[in-house]
Amino acid sequence: MKKDDLSLPSDCILRKATPADIWSIRWLVLSAKLDPTQLKWQQFWVIEYDQQIVACGQLRKFSGAQELGSLVVKPNWRDRNLGSVLTQHLIHAATQPLYLECLGQRLAEFYHRFGFVPISFEELPRSLRRKFQLSELGRKLGIVPVVFMHYQDK
């Protein structure tokens, strides 16, 4: 997928988060039932429409790696490329090897379009293995369909 293929709806703005955005970000993340820990507004990018945040995502920093995380689009704003625009932007903003964890094959297929490939837990950098230990246990027990992925530039 090329960046040129993606565009925001008119009147939407992609911007770095500010301290005033933290409660909107928290609400989006909690409403999507995502991990509410490690929500540092400084790591987030948001998409805004009419002074309301309609999507967000962050690049978490770890030793020797980054994680694309907390990517959420408000339900009434889905299917308008916001998640794709934000994913592409975060990929280009990453300065270290980029990883993510997602639940289920449908999300894994979404991220695969951008160059993410599934990897085993053992292939994760040590700094991320510590963070994803519980997810890996849930995967092994068949409780959560987690997929670990690594970005590979096409």
Q: Which features would summarize this protein structure in a list?
A:
7 strands, alpha+beta, Aminopeptidase, 7-stranded mixed beta sheet
Describe the model.
The chain is globular. Strand 2 and strand 3 form a beta hairpin. A 7-stranded mixed β-sheet has the order 1-2-3-4-5-7-6, sandwiched between helices. The protein has about 150 residues and is α+β, with helices and mostly antiparallel strands. The longest helix is centred in the middle third of the chain and has 12 residues. It has 5 helices and 7 strands; from the N terminus they run βαβββαβαβααβ. The termini are close together. The protein has one domain: Aminopeptidase (3-Layer(aba) Sandwich), CATH 3.40.630.30. The model has no long low-confidence stretch (mean pLDDT about 95). InterPro entries: Acyl_CoA_acyltransferase, GNAT_dom. Keywords: Transferase. It comes from Fischerella thermalis JSC-11. GO terms for molecular function: acyltransferase activity, transferring groups other than amino-acyl groups.
List the helices and strands and how they pair.
Blueprint: E1 12-16, H1 22-31, E2 44-49, E3 52-62, E4 65-73, H2 82-93, E5 98-103, H3 105-112, E6 116-119, H4 126-131, H5 133-140, E7 146-151
Parallel strand pairs: 4-5
Antiparallel strand pairs: 1-2, 2-3, 3-4, 5-7, 6-7
Protein name: GCN5-related N-acetyltransferase
GO molecular function: acyltransferase activity, transferring groups other than amino-acyl groups
Domain N-acetyltransferase: 12-133
